[in-house]
């Protein structure tokens, strides 16, 4: 879906509302941590105020992940807000290096690539089933969220092993 600049100029600051659905298969292909995805429902509005064009709204979907620590599959409802500002090509507002204002190319704003990028950037690279997930024991492989293990997982850097012997003698 594209928003025509002329439509925004005729509305004289009144927002143009839009709704669209992003292709779940395309998003799933572009992010390795997404195992399953419902269609991404997007709603938002676009408006022209002064010399700037604003596009903002919200995206929602249910995403299937595999926990990076315990390898358990889980589903999470994801809501991604988005807000972008555009200015016409050649505007002084775009020339600033720190500016987050995007340049308009042509007479339309292409929404799909913009929304796909915002959605994918909000997806975690290392998804966790819970913030306090304890993961798998590196020795026996048991899921430490479900049961405790008696493995000693104390690892000492071999370069510092001599220091451990030094402190043993002083006690």
Describe the structure.
With 171 residues, the chain is α+β, with helices and mostly antiparallel strands. The chain has 5 helices and 8 strands; from the N terminus they run E-H-E-H-E-E-E-E-H-E-E-H-H. The strands form 2 sheets. Strands 2, 3, 4, 5, 6 and 7 form a 6-stranded mixed beta sheet that branches. Strands 1-8 form a two-stranded antiparallel sheet. Strand 5 and strand 6 (73-88) form a beta hairpin. It is elongated and about 80 Å long. This is YceD family protein. Pfam families: YceD. It comes from Brevibacillus ruminantium.
- SS-based class: alpha+beta
Percent strand equals: 35-45%
Helix and strand sequence: EHEHEEEEHEEHH
Low-confidence spans: none
Q: What portion of residues is helical? A: 10-25%
- Radius of gyration based on Cα positions: 25 Å
What is the assembly state of the chains in this entry?
A: single chain
Number of DSSP strand runs: 8
Largest pleated sheet? 6 strands, mixed
Shape assignment: elongated
* Tally of DSSP helical segments: 5
Q: CA-to-CA gap between the ends?
A: 73 Å
**Can you tell me the number of structural domains?**
2
Average pLDDT across residues? Answer: 86
């Amino acid at each position: 879906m594209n928003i025509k600049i002329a439509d925004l100029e005729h509305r004289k600051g009144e927002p143009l509302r839009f709704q669209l659905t992003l292709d779940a298969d395309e998003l799933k292909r572009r992010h390795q941590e997404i195992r399953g995805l419902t269609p991404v429902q997007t709603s938002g509005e676009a408006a022209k105020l002064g010399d700037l064009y604003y596009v903002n709204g919200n995206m929602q979907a249910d995403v299937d992940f595999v926990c990076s620590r315990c390898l358990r599959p889980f589903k999470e409802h994801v809501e991604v807000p988005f807000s972008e500002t555009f200015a016409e090509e050649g505007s002084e507002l775009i020339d600033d290096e720190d500016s987050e204002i995007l340049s308009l190319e042509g007479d339309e704003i292409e929404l799909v690539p913009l929304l796909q990028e915002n959605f994918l950037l909000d997806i975690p690279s290392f998804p966790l089933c819970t913030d306090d997930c304890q993961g798998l024991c590196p020795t026996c492989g048991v899921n430490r969220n479900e049961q405790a293990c008696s493995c000693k997982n104390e690892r000492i850097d071999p370069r510092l092993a001599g220091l451990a012997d030094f402190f043993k003698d002083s006690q």
